[in-house]
Specification:
With 674 residues, the chain is mainly beta. Helix content is 15%, strand content 39%. The chain is built from six helices and 38 strands. Strand 34 and strand 35 form a beta hairpin. Helix 1 crosses helix 2. The two termini are 19 Å apart.
């Protein structure tokens, strides 16, 4: 039966310590950290033995995130957001934020389908109308020959003599209110060779009429009627369609789809605009300033469409007529001399529609994913190490690297260094030597070039001190007790070593959001610095496994292998935590992972769901990850107890892997079996 050696080991070591305390603390010249100090320094990665130089640094690799867009809310997600929407002068062409999170520019004709002719003999019937009994109008419901929907009105007419007529009328009990519409359109199909003329009458309750006369053509054709004065469109009484011809004419006419719309002529523009700030100058070389946007447009019906992109007073791109369909537009703005400097500029998308023709007019354009970027221009600065612990009076070296919007390295040429603690004794564009003050404290080392900044946290630790000489009686020889204590200590050490050798040791700890974006990472591997390939490979393996095993909403600890390493993976509502290391995984680790995730969710909550990728949105989360990895165990509230002792300075965390520097890997706390 397998037994746990840890309790016995602890007992043996305790007995040994009780015997040897006078000899451990008694000899002259032994040193230890400042006696009686309470705070994070006693629980930090740097609290172990310091190597030469007394500088402890930690530099975590990070994935390069998307570049900063000069246009705010380019995806039109915010309500009301930074965009300004302006309709045309008469309101015929409108501008708005579409419910699908896009900008919408366009015109849609309001249309009223008065009668689809699908039920001509129903509750609102059409009835025959003739000038005298010799002529005839035989009405019926047609379903095979139609223009739209399910049916049409069929009228078999007979014109007995000249100046006679026959047709159909619809006269409902109550009048119709056609306010807002000034045109009626009706489809008719002369299905027989006989020549026929159609007359369309619309009359209001006071006797005012609108009248249209049309020589019918063979096949379907649409005939418009303007609803002008003296007709009162708010009190329409009836509509009649009659047919005339020479005496003895017979024929068949099909009538379908009577609609109302507004045919007012317009020629105006609607626009969506945003004022942005350009703080980095650009030259005139091609593609040094680029604008991207997604464009989707409908077909232009009875309008001529002209879409323009204007920056300042310059038309940077235009298209007329606007092609229908969806595409991405890429505009090179580098040739505009007015945009090569810095300042505030206004970006405008303008759609002008000019109505033509007599049918219903419509055209809509949607704008989305607006991005204005400066390629090959400094976008971020990363400082390495990101955090450092330095003994009072000692020095540390910080280095800085520049990155463009695509994550490519750029040389820093005019960087300025500063520090809120201690002094920077030697600096150049890419490095600075920090000299710690004589008193402990915390501060920030910052490097800036133009408006782009990067920074690192610095903790100045207290010095080592010597213990006073021990009293003479501590030096009295106790050979028997010393031998006994030594034996007990040796046995305890062997038992502890055996237990520790079989325990899981955390080498890397990842915190990743549900979309696979790295939030925080810390490592205890001594060969980790600059190893971005290893980091990317680990992340790929973790997310691939997570997507496979967490397809359902069932939680619980999951584990898999990466080479010779074991990965323990837990999930919460918004994030994954993955511990990579060696040794068997025990229940203690699973409990720690769950407690850690519970604190993460409690502390950051919905901020994780809407995280933009910026470290300042999740202040303190790096310290929580480092605390867990260093201690290799975690209990609910550990971060609060740690933060209460010494609050962590609030700084902007740099992104991207930095240049190689002299880095000391932080030793972990003494191992406790899980």
């Amino acid at each position: 039966m397998k037994t746990d050696t840890y309790p016995a080991a602890v007992l043996l070591v305790t007995l040994a310590a009780a015997i040897l305390v006078p000899f451990v603390f008694g000899p002259v010249g032994v040193t230890h950290a400042g006696v009686g100090s309470v705070g994070p320094a006693n629980d930090r990665a740097s609290s172990g033995a310091h190597p030469a130089g007394d500088v402890v640094a930690k530099s975590n690799p990070r994935l390069v995130r998307n570049a900063t867009n000069l246009i705010a809310d380019g995806m039109f997600d915010a309500i009301p957001g930074p965009w300004n929407y302006t309709n045309g002068t008469t309101g015929a062409v409108t501008s708005s934020r579409d419910p699908t999170s896009r900008a919408r520019l366009g015109h849609t004709e309001p249309v009223l389908r008065f009668d689809s002719m699908d039920d001509v003999l129903g509750t609102t019937p059409w009835t025959s109308l003739v000038s005298n009994p010799q002529s005839a109008s035989n009405l019926s419901q047609e379903t095979a020959i139609r223009k739209e929907a399910n049916g049409s009105l069929r009228d078999d007419v007979t014109i007995a003599q000249n100046n006679q007529w026959a047709g159909a009328i619809r006269n409902d009990p109550l009048p119709w209110n056609w306010s807002g519409y000034n045109r009626l359109a009706i489809w008719m199909d002369r299905a027989t060779p006989s020549a026929l003329t159609a007359w369309v009458y619309v009359q209001d309750q006071a006797g005012g009429i609108s009248l249209g006369q049309y020589a019918l053509v063979a096949g379907w054709y649409r005939y418009p009627l303007d609803l002008n004065a003296p007709l009162d469109v708010s009190q329409v009484d009836y509509i009649a369609i009659i047919f005339t011809g020479t005496g003895g004419t017979t024929g068949t006419v099909y009538v379908d789809d009577v609609v109302l719309f507004n045919s007012t002529v317009f020629a105006e523009s609607a626009r969506v605009a945003q004022t942005f700030t350009k703080s980095t100058p650009t030259g005139g070389s091609p593609n040094s300033l680029r604008l991207f946007f997604d464009l989707q447009a409908t077909q232009s019906l009875d309008v001529v469409a002209d879409l323009e992109v204007v920056v300042g007073n310059t038309v940077e791109w235009s298209e007329s007529p606007v092609a229908s369909g969806a595409r991405t537009i890429d505009v090179d703005l580098s040739g505009d001399a007015g945009l090569q400097g810095t300042g505030s500029f206004t970006l405008v998308f303008s759609l002008r529609l000019n109505r033509t023709g007599s049918e219903e007019s419509s055209m809509t354009a949607w704008i989305d994913n607006v991005t204005l970027v400066i390629p090959d221009t400094l976008a971020r600065i990363s400082v390495t190490p990101t955090t450092a612990s330095v003994l009072v009076g000692q020095t540390a070296v910080f280095t800085a690297g520049g990155w463009d919007i695509d994550g490519n390295p750029l040389a820093l040429t005019a960087a300025n260094w500063s520090s809120t603690i201690g002094q920077l004794v030697t600096v150049n564009a890419t490095s600075a030597t920090f000299h710690a003050p004589t008193l402990p404290g915390t501060g920030v080392v910052t490097v800036a070039q133009g408006t782009v900044r990067g920074s690192a946290n610095v903790t100045v630790e207290p010095p080592t001190v010597a213990v006073p000489p021990s009293p003479p009686w501590y030096t009295a020889p106790w050979p028997g007790l010393v031998l006994l204590a030594g034996a007990l200590a040796l046995a305890g050490f062997i038992a502890l070593r055996q237990s520790a050798n079989h325990a899981f040791r955390i080498e890397d700890l990842f915190l990743i959001n549900r979309e696979g974006l790295l939030i925080a990472h810390t490592t205890g591997r001594r060969d980790s610095h600059g190893d971005a390939d290893i980091l990317a490979g680990m992340l790929t393996a973790i997310m691939s496994f997570a997507q496979d095993v967490f397809q359902e909403e069932i939680g619980g600890l999951r584990q898999f292998e990466i080479g010779s390493k074991t990965v323990a993976l837990e999930r919460s509502e918004h994030v994954y935590v993955a511990a990579i290391g060696s040794g068997p995984i025990r229940n203690r680790l699973s409990t720690s992972l769950r407690d850690f995730l519970a604190d993460i969710e409690e502390r950051y909550g919905d901020r994780l769901q809407w995280w933009s990728g910026m470290n300042e949105d999740l202040l303190g989360i790096d310290a929580m990850v480092q605390l867990f990895a260093r201690r290799e165990r975690y209990h609910r509230g550990d971060w609060k107890r740690h933060a209460a002792a010494e609050p962590e300075p609030i700084v902007e965390q740099p992104e991207g892997p930095g240049p190689v520097i002299r880095v000391v890997i932080v030793p972990k706390e003494p191992m406790r079996p899980l």
